[in-house]
Amino acid sequence: MSPKFFVLAQGLIFGACMETQVNWFGSEYYLKLYRNRNLEEAKAFIDNLLGYLNPASGSRFIDVCCGRGRHAIYLAEKGYVVTGIDSSVESIAEAQKVCKPNLSFKVGDIRKPLQLEPADVALNLFTSFGYFDSDEENLLSMQNIAGSLRKGGSLVIDYLNEHSTAQNLQCCDDLEIDGIQYALDRVADEHFIRKTIEINDKGKKLVFHEQVRRYGLSHFNGLFKAAGLQLQAVFGNYQLAPFELETSDRLIMHAKKL
User: Fold this and answer.
1) Whole-model pTM?
2) What is the mean predicted confidence (pLDDT) over 155-165?
3) Given 143, 154, 207, 246, which residue has the most CB atoms within 10 angstroms?
């Protein structure tokens, strides 16, 4: 692997650094850029999912590509047994600062078997899928997630609506956050939605490249079938409203293991 490319959390994103290597998802730059994530909105989304799924008390959850664990921690607070898994060493180290007997975190690559006790529910939230270059790697990831479920277990994937995202893509942004300059450039091609992030931190310059696969509902249906899963329901936002191709912000899918 080239010294300028490396694996990051929540899937595979490639970052080319002009001066020094920084793990993008594990970095303070990433946290600053996406600090507008609303914790209360995340909790409300989990509450909506729990109301829909109606899991039994003490059910076992896996939060796949959990980042720093905001969803996993809240689920554990609700009394469920939760394991969060992510490929970012930095993110898992931060998540592990929260200690609960029903909560654990581990570093893992979803292209490999997760080697966890079978779960009742697996969650993959905030567009944490589709970052790999090849469809084969994404399929392998889906199969490994499915393999972490017991028979009849549920998978919920929260993905962007690639159609409306591409149609309404804002090509560029220039931001200043805590004295750090961020220049964002976005483009949608046939297969990926790509983002270039140029950072100028008081003269220290870094460049990162994100990409996420343009998977729509039909693509996911194919992945589900190949992984032994069956689609149950589709929603278009965190309030679990019906999915609309032209207008929904999200593509939220519930599948069950056959």
Assistant:
1) 0.86
2) 97
3) 154
